[in-house]
Design a protein that fits this description.
The protein has about 500 residues and is of the alpha/beta class. The chain has 19 helices and 14 strands. The longest helix is centred in the N-terminal third of the chain and has 14 residues. The protein binds adenosine monophosphate (AMP).
Length: about 500
């Protein structure tokens, strides 16, 4: 076990995009990598990059406390590419391993290797769930320089004897606090023990809860600690506003539309919901109101999610109704607005959500719909970000709202709550323990398939008014859910098979 790490270089730089004191060519990167950085158009390294890159090149362990959006991915991919220029891969023995909590993040890191590794001939393989083992096996057999994996799928391959981890020289554990949220820590501990002790470990987390602290003390050796921005700090360049609304879904949808209509410089936006059931309802409603809209949540199959993200990135979809799966880590540059359809239950999710806009030095705007039931969540957010968020119009009178709630309770009329923590998004990649004994979810598999089919194959407008509980708008017409050319997987359009009696 590593001794308690001395407090090695600590960089605490809140202005992560204005690090003009250093140029890329002073960091020790190879010519090939510098050429790729130049081609990417980067002028100077971000704080996490100038802090981490020289340390990685010196083969030190890294403890990077940084969120996505800070240039964190390049802070490990660029020096890894430089180090990988020496040596070559052997069959089934990857030279480096990057662990990511979600498939999207893993795919994003792969894209980074393609972008920055354009002058290299390296084999990069992706091991994520929802893709056939056979294709992944073939890649492993060819020998991989960089293996990017989600922990569950990696262990599946290992258990099938298709993968040897003794050759791993560099291990990257990315988004460690997200791994914790998703129950991956036992898998991570197991993987760390399967890799030689002599490896170099690069560890990144946006926050440092005690479980993560313990992990770093166990598995890192004298790491260089680089901290760029505490999670509680919301980007300076994001304008944040609150909008009071009634708690009925119908009112919330109307308030959202009013914000969408009045928002300045709205180019594209992510609309976050707390519950995946609300995602499909809101998606259909916005579509009915002729918005160019897509949906994204963790129960959609991998291909559909990637397709949706891709269409959003390319601008084919302007509004993306999403769950928190989309909030963390995804690099979607140039999102002009974020709308919180629900106040997030976890204050930190607020920071992650609004961090989807105002990236890479651009400005952005985040609106949050607030109902009379949201006071405690709002208080927690403002406490975390250490500022009071301004209201667009009149603020909510929480006192009156509380009285009304009490009266409702007395009269026995249940208030329609939009909050239910157990209906929050389930993780799409399951930790080993959960994979073996699947946790019960409130949405049955059949419901989920049905929900996906509904999202991808919207209900004909003729049957919508009853379902929506509202009237048809004058301009309503039947339109495909997505832009032409977007393929809908056939299985999603099939009737779900009846369950076999067990
Ligand atoms: P990340 O934190 O890795 O998700 O990166 C956020 C975004 O910043 C990505 O779109 C990167 O392409 C971009 N980026 C990374 N490093 C730099 C840099 N030095 N200068 C400008 N943009 C960068």
């Amino acid at each position: 076990m590593a001794a308690a790490a001395p407090k090695a270089p600590l960089i605490n730089n809140l202005n992560i995009w204005a690090n003009r004191s250093m140029a890329f060519d002073t960091l020790g990167l190879s010519e090939k990598v510098l050429a790729a950085v130049d081609a990417a158009g980067y002028k100077e390294p971000t704080a996490i990059q100038s802090g981490a890159i020289p340390q990685v090149l010196e083969r030190r362990d890294i403890l990077g406390i940084a969120q996505t959006g800070t240039g964190k991915t390049a802070s490990f991919t660029l020096p890894m590419l430089t180090l990988l220029e020496k040596g070559r891969a052997r069959a089934r023995m990857p030279r480096t391993l990057i662990l990511e909590p979600t498939r999207e993040l893993a795919a994003q890191v792969q894209e980074n290797f393609e972008k920055y590794g354009t002058n290299h001939k390296l084999n990069v393989a992706l091991l994520i769930g929802g893709v056939s083992f056979a294709d992944q096996d073939k890649k492993l057999d060819r020998g991989t320089d960089v293996l990017i994996a989600t922990p569950g799928r990696l262990l599946d391959h290992f258990e099938r004897g298709k993968l040897l981890l003794q050759g791993v020289e560099i291990l990257v554990i990315d988004e460690a606090d997200r791994m914790l949220d998703m129950g991956f820590i036992p898998d991570i501990e197991r993987i760390c023990k399967l890799i030689p002790f002599t490896r170099q470990t690069l560890f990144f987390s946006a926050t440092m809860p005690p479980e993560i602290q313990r992990l770093t003390e166990t598995f890192l050796q004298n790491p260089a600690r680089i901290e760029v921005a505490p999670t509680s700090s919301t980007a300076e360049n994001v304008t944040q506003r609150l909008k009071a609304t009634q708690s009925k879904d119908y009112d919330k949808r109307e308030s959202l539309r009013s914000l969408l209509e009045n928002a300045e410089d709205l180019k594209n936006a992510i609309v976050f919901c707390n519950r995946k059931r609300d995602i499909s309802t809101l998606f259909r409603s916005l579509e009915r109101h002729e918005y160019n809209v897509g949906a994204l949540h963790g129960d959609m199959d991998q291909r559909t999610r990637m397709m949706m993200l891709d269409n959003f990135r390319k601008g084919n979809i302007k509004l993306l109704v999403a769950s928190d799966v989309a909030a963390r880590g995804l690099d979607i540059p140039e999102v002009s607005h974020v709308f919180n359809y629900d106040v997030p239950i976890n204050a930190e999710d607020y920071v992650h959500r609004i961090g989807r806009t105002g990236r890479a030095g651009r400005s952005g705007t985040a609106y949050t719909l607030v109902t009379g039931d949201d006071q405690k969540y709002l208080v927690a957010i403002e406490k975390l970000i250490k500022k009071t968020i301004e209201w667009v119009d009149e603020p909510i009178d929480f006192e009156t709202a509380a009285k009304e709630r009490k009266a409702r309770r007395k009269s026995g009329k249940p208030a329609k709550s939009t909050k239910s923590s157990n209906d929050n998004e389930a993780s799409q990649e399951k930790p080993a323990a959960r994979r073996r004994s699947p946790a019960k979810s409130r949405d049955t598999k059949q419901e989920v398939i049905q929900e996906q089919a509904e999202i991808l194959n919207p209900t004909p407008v003729s049957s919508l008014p009853q379902r929506m509980g509202g009237k048809r708008t004058k301009n309503e017409k039947m339109e495909p859910a997505f832009s032409p050319g977007v393929h809908i997987p056939a299985f999603l359009l099939r009737e779900p098979r009846p369950k076999k009696a067990s």
